[in-house]
Amino acid sequence: MADLIQRLSAKSIQGSIDREITGIRYDSRRVISGDLFVAVRGASFDGHSFIEQAIDKGAVAIVGEQPALSQRATAIVVPNSREALAQLAATFFGDPSRKLRTIGVTGTNGKSTTGFLIKHLLELANQLTGLIGTVRYEVGQRILPAPRTTPESLDLQELLSQCVAAGCRSVVIEVSSHALSQDRANQLEFDVGVFTNLTRDHLDFHEGMKGYFEAKARLFASLRDNRNKEGKAVINVDDPYGQQLVGRFGR
User: Fold this and answer.
1) What topology is assigned to 12-92 in CATH?
2) Distance between CA 190 and CA 231 in Å, rounded?
3) I want to staple 97 with a disulfide (CB 3.0 to 4.6 A). Which of 57, 61, 102, 234 is the partner?
């Protein structure tokens, strides 16, 4: 566990970190013996309410935002559970995005079409390419149903690790504004970010176009801040929000 939690900005740690962690879960119903459970706040449920259930099912460590998480397992308090989940997932699966040419596509319209086109072009160049998006997930030769456009960070890192194991050289990921706002794409290292357009959508969630735009902009901020890859942006400047992105991140 000591190696697994190195990236966390822990406020406090109560209990031993000299434990073997066999898996990470954010859904208490899926916990098995030896797991670390991350208590994540969602729109309908708060994972902190299920900590004791997770421990009853075998969780040996808990990560969450509330103090005094539990006396029955190692408890690690962090500022942001979603960010912690992304950090733990990247470490647990060995940072698979570093081993792939990772391409993120964001925008209101055209993400799926753009993603399929990029995948097709890369495979014409004999590069086996994974795909994660609204229509389906493709991992090597396997096609999987897509419960959501961009999975939770733990599931996303696991899919990328499976792409690596399947021999993929590249992966195309549709990166939704919800995912960017909820830190699901944190700890991914993108080689390329693609912006299609921005129109009025999801404004109930983002509380206006400014919030919606700022969520999309996080993908391009991650390109700028990545120290391991020289990220490149492909931006539709016919869209006024694309022009804003170029103004902010262009060089």
Assistant:
1) 3.40.1390
2) 6
3) 102
Length in residues, the chain: 251
Report the DSSP pairing between strands 170-174 and 129-132.
Answer: parallel
Render pLDDT for 187-229 as a digit per residue (tens, 0 to 9).
999 999 999 999 976 566 657 899 999 999 999 999 999 989 9
CA distance 31 to 37: 7
* Nearest Cα to Cα of residue 58 among 30, 86, 81: 30
CB 6 within 8 A of CB 38: no
pTM given for the model: 0.94
Q: How far is CA 87 from CA 4, 32, 73, 183, 251, in A?
A: 9, 21, 20, 10, 29
Domain boundaries in the chain? Answer: 12-92, 96-249
* 63-66-70 Cα angle (round to 5): 65
* CATH tag, 96-249: 3.40.1190.10
pLDDT digit string, tens, across residues 79-95 = 999 999 999 999 999 99
